[in-house]
């Protein structure tokens, strides 16, 4: 097989992935693509199918790769319930950047200059090589672990992770950051184990002011219009209080009459570290554990991280400081990953607009 033909299976897989996994909730079919591409003269579904078959790949003409790039550069292609290709002139600056990068990738796959999957997105969890990264969790309060033999240091079955709050968020994030930063020292600890030098590394804080004293210390030192109201304090289940322009609003979790969690609230915050201006601090927080996990998975879940990362870059540009409060629906006891590209999922964003 010639070098030009070699990457075509990868192109076919990429085109199929764009349709099926970029916006998995949309359920885009080959027929919808055929209609969107052809307009009044739809393309055949079999033609779309031939572009997606890695075993018998057919490379689309460049004009159709341009159509793919334009359509998948923005979720606005789904507005109104009908899949359509927006005129390039109607795209925002961020969307045009997405289109350019996606088109370059597809052309490289078609022309044989690349042989594997898509170029990784600019990931918010990727740091410069050799910079230390410290993930900080709260120590689970004694009253919640007193009955667990695994959390008792005197027990033969002792497992230190049982003494951590938010272990599911920790495991999810630690694995992702390690994979993205193979040349960095990545460690995790509880807030009471933090050493002096850890404060000046890249800090990633899991959990809120209720248990995590480092989260409380950081929030007190930065200029952020969001404060966490602890549970059972000013509000029955607490929430995130936003105070701007003399107005205040509390975003609360939702529970049913039997205290079952129906919807948590997640807060993701990134800023320059108050302890080292050449490092960052990131807070992933929820009113309950499923909110904290949702804040983490917004940018680690393979089904959502690319679109959420693209949204952050489009919405906030090169601004170092940003904050997003979002809903985390709970279904069957499981917290779902928030899709930040859906307006109804975003409860509050700061700053108001990218510069």
UniProtKB/TrEMBL annotation:
> What's the domain of life for this entry?
Bacteria
Which InterPro entries does the UniProt record give?
Lambda_DNA-bd_dom_sf (IPR010982)
Gene3D superfamilies registered for this protein in UniProt: lambda repressor-like DNA-binding domains (1.10.260.40)
In its UniProt entry, what is this protein called? HTH cro/C1-type domain-containing protein
The record lists the organism as Amycolatopsis bullii
Q: What is the lineage of its organism?
A: Bacteria, Bacillati, Actinomycetota, Actinomycetes, Pseudonocardiales
């Amino acid at each position: 097989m010639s070098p030009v033909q070699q990457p075509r299976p990868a192109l076919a897989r990429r085109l199929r992935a764009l349709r099926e996994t970029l916006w998995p909730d949309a359920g885009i079919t080959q027929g919808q693509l055929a209609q969107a591409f052809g307009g009044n003269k739809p393309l055949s579904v079999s033609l779309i199918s031939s572009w997606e078959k890695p075993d018998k790949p057919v490379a689309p003409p460049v004009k159709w790769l341009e159509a793919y790039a334009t359509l998948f550069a923005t979720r606005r292609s789904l507005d109104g319930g009908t899949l359509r290709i927006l005129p390039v002139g109607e795209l925002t600056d961020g969307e045009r950047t997405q289109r350019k990068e996606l088109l370059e990738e597809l052309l490289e796959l078609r022309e044989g200059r690349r042989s594997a999957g898509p170029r990784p997105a600019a990931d918010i969890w990727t740091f410069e090589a050799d910079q230390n990264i410290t993930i900080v969790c709260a120590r689970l309060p004694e009253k919640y672990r007193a009955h667990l033999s695994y959390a008792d240091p005197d027990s033969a079955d002792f497992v230190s992770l049982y003494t951590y709050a938010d272990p599911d968020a920790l495991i999810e994030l630690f694995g992702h950051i390690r994979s993205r930063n193979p040349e960095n020292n990545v460690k995790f600890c509880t807030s009471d184990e933090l050493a002096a030098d850890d404060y000046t590394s890249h800090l990633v804080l899991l959990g809120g002011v209720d248990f995590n004293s480092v989260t409380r210390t950081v929030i007190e030192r930065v200029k952020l219009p969001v404060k966490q109201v602890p549970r059972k304090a000013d509000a029955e289940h607490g929430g995130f209080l936003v105070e701007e322009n003399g107005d205040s609003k509390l975003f609360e979790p939702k529970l049913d009459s039997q205290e079952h969690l129906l919807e948590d609230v997640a807060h993701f915050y990134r800023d320059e570290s108050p302890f080292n201006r050449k490092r960052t601090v990131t807070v992933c927080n929820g009113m309950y554990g499923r909110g904290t996990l949702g804040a983490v998975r917004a940018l680690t879940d393979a089904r959502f991280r690319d679109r959420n990362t693209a949204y952050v870059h489009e919405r906030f540009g090169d601004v170092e400081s940003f904050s997003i409060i979002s809903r985390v629906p709970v279904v069957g006891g499981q917290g779902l990953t928030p899709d930040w590209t859906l307006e109804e999922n975003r409860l509050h964003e700061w700053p108001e607009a990218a510069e």
